[in-house]
Amino acid sequence: MPTQKKRVNVSLSKPVAKAIGYLAKRDDVPYATKAAHLLEEALELEEDITWEYLAKQREAEGGAYIPQKDVWAKYGL
């Protein structure tokens, strides 16, 4: 049965391929599973960096301010 997951072909440098292989073996998971997990973690880090950037912009003088009551109202809370 074909998988519903999106497949991606990626060329890796030898050190990166070796590192993924080591981590997969250490964690006793398939190589592709470890690679996918590492990509997910990288995306989470990128998301954190983006949220931090937006928060710093809002904290800066003249930054966008949203009153707390408006935030709660938007979500019906």
Features:
single chain; 77 residues; 3 helices
Topology overview:
Blueprint: H1 14-27, H2 31-59, H3 68-74
Helix pairs in contact: 1-2
Classify the beta-strand content into a percent band: under 5%
- The global form is elongated
Extended strand count: 0
User: What does the average pLDDT come to?
Assistant: 90
Helix- and strand-based class?
mainly alpha
SS field, number of helical segments: 3
In angstroms, what separates the terminal alpha carbons?
A: 44 Å
One letter per element, helices H and strands E, the order comes to: HHH
Model regions low in confidence, pLDDT < 50 over at least 5 residues: none
State the domain count. Answer: 1
- Based on CA atoms alone, the radius of gyration comes out at 20 Å
Structural summary, described in words:
The chain is mainly α. The protein has one domain. Helices cover 65% and strands 0% of the residues. It contains 3 helices and no strands.
Quick take:
The protein is an all-alpha fold. The chain contains three helices and no strands.
